[in-house]
Amino acid sequence: MKAIYDTWNLSYKSIFGAVKQFETCRFTIRLPKDVCPDFAPVLVLFRTGFKERFINMNDVTEEEDCIAYSADYNARYTDVHYYYFSYCQDGTRHFIKRVNVHEAAVDYGDLFQLTVYSSDYTTPDFLKGGVMYQIFPDRFCKSGKPKENIPEGRVLRENWGDTPYYRPDEHGHVWNNDYFGGDFAGIQSKLGYLHDLGVTCIYLNPIFESHENHRYNTADYMKADPLLGTNDEFEELCHEAGKYGISIILDGVFSHTGADSVYFNKFGRYPELGAFQSRESRYFDWYSFIDYPNVYEAWWGIDTLPNVCENNEDYTEFICGEEGVLRYWLSKGAAGYRLDVADELPDRFLDNLRKAVKGYDKEKIVIGEVWEDASNKESYGIKRRYLLGDQLDSVMNYPFREAIINFAKGGNARDLINSVMTIVENYPKPTIDVLMNFVSTHDIERAINRLGGESCEGRSKDWMAERYLTDEEYSIGKKRLKTAMALQFFLPGVPSIYYGDEAGLQGYKDPFNRRCYPWGHEDQELIEYVTELSRVRKSIPNMKNGRIYFVINDGDFIDERLAAFTRQGEQGDYLFFINRSEETVRVEDISGNLSRFTDFEPYIGEFSDNAVTVQPYGYTIIKARFVK
């Protein structure tokens, strides 16, 4: 008996994954011949806040061992839809619902999801098929170029590579007031290195003037931090990067400012009256005071980060207007923005932000920080609509990260498949092509520590501060990191390398994941490996927008040590076999096991005698043609 319903199979759902508005999708269920519905089964769809819609499945086809019932649905409304099927037999109503990621069962399970996105939703081409590189500006490279007008209260560290401060000093100053001096000129000096690594886009953590080294407490949106350089030097960096084919996107922190800022001015650093100082300040209405001036809404209750009212007309105009922050930095050469804590930016503000960015240039990108499945995300009781075509182009792909790390550490292939395919099925195709795929960032421990070392969960900063991997831990961490990076580079989306990961830089949670790049002490073998991944990725045209299909499925070979999938393309498919074990894995009878494909030929790695061999922690790629 065939499956009752399977969302991954086009004979059940004629369009895989999300569908465009006004696109017609055919839904088919298959019931045993001894099931005789009292009347036509129905497809039941609904959107949050709307009534159910019932569509009769009147198209009936008798097959060898079942009866197929079909119905078409024209997706009129951009939204996340939920659906199930229902039929009656002998007066009893039965329901067909989801029991795993893609298959169904009768009378138990959850709802299926159908994402419907705007028919004119497109995403920028410049990032597709490329490689991103994330830089925490203070810690990547120091040019030594003299700087002027350095604000008071900063501790300038002399020894590049020392452990970042993490305790208050004798005056009670916070531990993130120490700076190592990475700057725009330093980044510019390494553009050749980044180009050779295969990088096509740099994502910079915040660059605006701020008075903590992470710079998420913005002091002046219209001014680069003096330790990084001037606004003109940023423009020069973008110009020079462009010569290498590298774009630069900025971190936009728009849900809060710093208390020590032009706008709030709690400590009187700036000459203009801030909201904390006077109700007459032009910025007063940007903030929400509970008991003026000392009690106010702040990001997660941290009083150095007062929340802004994003939909305040003056604030929105300041950020999104014709003369606003967004357009100013785009005019300086920025290729777009990654939005900090997108969950905390209201829909209307995100709508205005997208209009501002795309109104300047539709090829500028907007990426949101969302840690969960962004297609069905709810935050603060609001169902979000990030990926329907009116807000974000892409998101930080945390679900892939967890799936990749868990598989590399020994998890089974089925969990990897389900995690990846859930995102691929729920997200619009334009989003999938520019997903930001990473294994480390400034907010989480570095992947090599997660993969090779002890867990830092529940550990103190004192424990993490000088905790380095042993030689044995580093060796296993490095091997697993290679597996993780191969997946990061070959799965749909865009790989994002956190600076130093390619050089073996270690670090548990912040600030230790923000150590200085180890110039002169790099793991050259790892750099060469990442460079090779970039070269291979660039050589495969399907990396730009090719769909994914996992070939470890029921009926195909199953080896828990392998991630095996194809990236499909018009000129043929590329089959990837990635080994997360310390054993050599050989897959016999490829043409028999993968009968959906023909015309197999080697591309990277060992393929001969109709068998694929994958070295420990390695990968093999073969070309094939999908048989439709």
Q: In words, what does this structure look like?
A:
The protein contains 14 helices and 34 strands. It has 628 residues and is of the alpha/beta class. The strands form 9 sheets. An 8-stranded parallel sheet has the order 24-21-20-17-14-11-26-25. Strands 1, 3, 4, 7, 8, 9 and 10 form a 7-stranded mixed sheet that branches. Strands 27-28-29-34-31 form a 5-stranded antiparallel sheet, with helices on one face. Helix 7 (398-408) runs antiparallel to helix 8. The longest helix has 20 residues, at 471-490. The mean pLDDT is 95.
Distance between the termini: 22 Å
Which structural category fits the helices and strands?
alpha/beta
Count the domains: 4
**Major beta sheet summary:** 8 strands, parallel
CATH H-level name of the largest domain... which superfamily? Glycosidases
Shape: globular
CATH architecture of the largest domain: Alpha-Beta Barrel
CATH topology of the largest domain: TIM Barrel
